[in-house]
Each structure stands twice: as C-alpha cells, then as structure tokens.
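Q: What would this chain look like folded?
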Amino acid sequence: MSAAAIEPRTTRRRRAFYAGLLAGTLTLSAAGPAMAQTQTQTAPLTEAHALFEQGMRLVEAERWGEALEFFRRSRALGERPSTVFNTGSVLVRLGQMAEAIETLEAFLRVSNDAANAAERAEAQRLLGEARLAQGRLALALNVADAEVFVDAGLVAGGGGRRALLLDPGAHRLRVVAAGHAEQSLSVSVLPGQAQSIAVTLRALPTRLLLTLAPASAQVALDGVERGAVRTFEVTPGAHALGLRATGYLPIERAVNVALGQSLSLDLALARRPATGITASPWFWTVLGVAVVGAAVAVTVAVMPTQLDPYGGTTGVVISAATQSP
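A: My prediction, written as structure tokens:
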C-alpha cells in the first residue's frame, strides 16, 4: 500500500486546499506582467501585493482568521481575481458561508473563463460546499410586519413566514414590531440543519391617561359613564371622550390611540358663563335706579319727622326757601 493511500483524509484535504489557493495565486497572477507593461506600478498596488503575500504566509501557518484580514485589506486596495478567490476560500475554511458565497460569486464575475478555468471550477465546488453547509431556519411570526435581526443585522423580507439561511454556529435573533414587546432568542445551527421556530410577540397595553381640571370632572368614554376614572386600558383606534363638571362647559372630542401607546391628555374645562336675567345689562341698570330710589325714599321718610312743625313736605320746601334770618 502506498504512502498516499494511508495518508489521513484530513491531511489530503488540507493539501488540496493549499494547492487550490496556491494554484489560484500563480494562475490568476499570470496576467500581471502583461498588465504591468501598460500600467505604472502605483503605491496602493504595491501595498496590496505585500498584504496578499502576508496573507499567503498566514494560510501556510493555518492562521485562517489573520489571513482573512490581510486578504480583505489587499482586496480593498485592488479587486484582483486571485485576492477575491483566496478570500472566498478562507471564508469557507472559517465556516463563514454567507460571506463566502458572496465572495466566490464575485470571483466568478471578475475572473476569465478561458484563462482561469481550473480556478473557476474550484470556486464552483466551494460554492456548492458553502451552500450545503448553511443552516435553514423557518420563522413563523404572529406579526407580519415585524423586523428580524440576526446578530444585530437586519434581515430583509416581510410576512408571517420567513426563510433564513444561517452559517453554522450560535446566533442571536431579535424580533421587533411596533406596539409589541420585542423578543430575543438564541439559535444554534449545525451544518446543513433545517429547523423551524414560532415567535409570538405580545402586544403592549394600550392606555388613555387623563389629567383634568377641575378635579371633580366626570368622564364618559365611548358613551359609557366612567365617573372619576382617569386611567383606561382601551383597544387601539378611535374613541369618543366626554367630560362634564357642574358650572363648566362640557367637552366632547375624539381621540385616537395607537397599538401599545400610552396617550396622556391634559384637559381643562372652561367655566360656564352667567345666564338668565342676571346676565342682562338692563337688569343691572334697573337695579341701580331702584337702589337710588330707595335712598331718596329713606331721605323723604326721615326729613318729615325732623321738620314736623312746618306742616308737611310742601310747606317745608316753601318755608325753607322764604324764611328770613
């Protein structure tokens, strides 16, 4: 039996992985000299190449996370097919399948069918591996317009049923909807695993809170007398509010309370103006004349008592006017 036949399977796979990376590096860089004849080497490209080479050294040392960062930095300076390919390959190795799929699909767009046939075939194989490794999570939601966040990232889509593709590992899900208490849950995903989760969001209480002046005001809500009650749990939507107090003008108004809202209203009733005869200015004019008349009557009634010897009211006036000193 040959040495190759008894070589551990993991070792063979590791060597194949290295071979894919190195082959991609050599083949995809082959166009470099021709391009260099027509383009001047710039500082960013020089830095990108140095970062790429450092990434390759880290791959040989199996320091995958560090290698990924160098490949990313190199790619940010220049979108070379070799860098894109190696970035996608390392992402698969790290189990970051969603980003790996996006990166490898980008490689297929920027690479050349004829010149990079072998590398494109390897990229297709890695894509198949990444897609099979992703977990599938089916979410059933009682609120169709709820927002779903996975590891702090918003997941696009809507409706009561959502299909999520997740990388293997632990994830934190958060479901949020207006007027409902948000719900958070942890999900553990195995490679290729399919699972279903139902999420039921609890509606927050919808309240109407009143502060009234005067404090004795009585409340009617939707036509039902509620007396001195000031806090109400209501259904979302429109409600008819009525306020009454002795000596004050009543208030009738419509209020709209959203789901989960606590709507606070501060209302003051206006005093009722005076009504009837006492509200008329003629009443106060007549009353003033009557008061003056009463004063005259009092004077006339008193004076005859003091001037009785002159023999009457008329005599008093005449005598007073003609009497000599």
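The longest strand covers residues 169-176.
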